[in-house]
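Quick one, T. Sequence first:
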Amino acid sequence: MQVIPAIDLLGDYAVRLEQGNYDRVLFRQPIEEFMSRIVATSPELIHVVDLEGARSGELRSSVVHRCVDVADGIDLQVSGGIRSIESAHAALTAGATRVIMGTAVWSEPFALSTLVGALGEQLVVALDVRDDQIEVRGWLASTGLRVDDALERCVDAGVRRLHVTAIDRDGTMTGPDMALYERVCSSGIAVVAAGGVRNDLDIEALEAVGCEGAVMGLGYLERLGLVLDVE
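Structure tokens:
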């Protein structure tokens, strides 16, 4: 079971939002300072989300470069504003190991198959879930697509890995939505879980239902005894 620390970016800062709400910033620190604290714990993989890119729809390759420089060889999975094959390749060229895509995946009927064909193992499909529906554009819009329908499309398209976020649990430290993760793991696709993951007990529960990894934000730092400058 892979534990993946998260770094969310807004402007020139690493931040943590509550439930994806841009008006609820729990803390902020300069990108390099926060990234260095994560790198010092020697994770196998770091989850990087450019919130500004997710909101604007434009990948900030320069920010990816900054994170790669500090990561010092640690693999990065990157998301936020990656809405075309070209921007996915730009993120990978900037140093990302794999890219997470959501908005572009659900934009048109054949987009998913096209992206899988172009990116293969380097593509991770985002299922950002609120009220059993898939949200996109930085969690600011709903597709109207239900989780089970999205899973069926992913299976049919040959998706290798899913990044599944329970939006209402994100940044709340209330524990993961186990019913959601049990459902998505039943698809047979590899699943990375995110949203509300607090501690080793949550990680063990997610592993028990079949998740291959869990992203931790506040929970990761508390687990390691790191202190944040919370606003």
